[in-house]
Amino acid sequence: MTPALRNPCFSAILCGTALLAPPAPAQSADGAGLLASTPQSVEDLQRIERQLQQMLPRVLPALVCIELNNGSGSGILVSEKGLVFSAAHVVDKKGTTLKIILPDGTRLPGKTTAQNSNSDAGMAKITSQLNKKLPCVEKAEKMPRVGDWVFALGHGGGLDRKRGPMVRLGRVVSLKNGVIQTDCKLIRGDSGGPLFNLDGKLIGIHSRVGSGLEDNLHVPMKDFDALTEETAEGKTSLTPPPEQDSQPFSTQPS
């Protein structure tokens, strides 16, 4: 398990800068265009840190932990009514009951509403009556580009409120076959967690947590858009999700 991060923003920077790719074209949005090339100074690193510090308070409240079958993964709220995006191999088949844990420790019942075993996109919904609107994040309208700066969130190693969620900074290294590949360091329990651009827009969901630094794959938003359309048409896949190369779940449920 990765040690606790006392300052997740700066720790993410320290981790990310050790694995930078060659310079890439500048990104288009405000935060995303900060540093598209390798940082050359402490000031460059501080600019990234400041951007992360601005984005994290916006997205962390929407990060959830998902528990089922003595294991746990991650997910992200995308609607105020409790819709959660995660990985298909985390939420299992449609109709599966699970627990969705909010950042404050509140445990709510949930159910898998849709999943696609081919893309590994999965969706779940909080099923209890809510007395307030939940925090949620905004999806990016476009796919990221190779070289774009991104950051990953997740409950790696399982939910630990004393440590808090883990934040990892990295770059997009490939977009093969429409799947996002990054060098953000992920571990067991991160599966189903969100990948953001530096403007805090959701661009992907962690799918495969590989053993190599660049073996981490993320499901893009276009696959969730397709899954939403399939669900509306009643065509959602009910087949069990495929076996993953790496174990997605923590064996230490909270």
TrEMBL record:
Q: Which GO terms describe its biological process?
A: proteolysis
Q: Where is this region: Disordered?
A: 228-254
Q: Which domain of life is it from?
A: Bacteria
Q: What is this protein called?
A: Peptidase S1 and S6 chymotrypsin/Hap
Arranged from A to Z, the UniProt key words for this protein are: Signal
- In its keyword annotation, does this UniProt entry include Signal? yes
Per its UniProt record, what Pfam families does this chain match?
Trypsin_2
State the Gene Ontology terms under molecular function.
serine-type endopeptidase activity
* Amino acid composition bias (Polar residues), ranges on this chain: 234-254
Which PANTHER family does its entry note?
SERINE PROTEASE FAMILY S1C HTRA-RELATED, SERINE PROTEASE HTRA2, MITOCHONDRIAL
**What residue range is the signal peptide?**
1-26
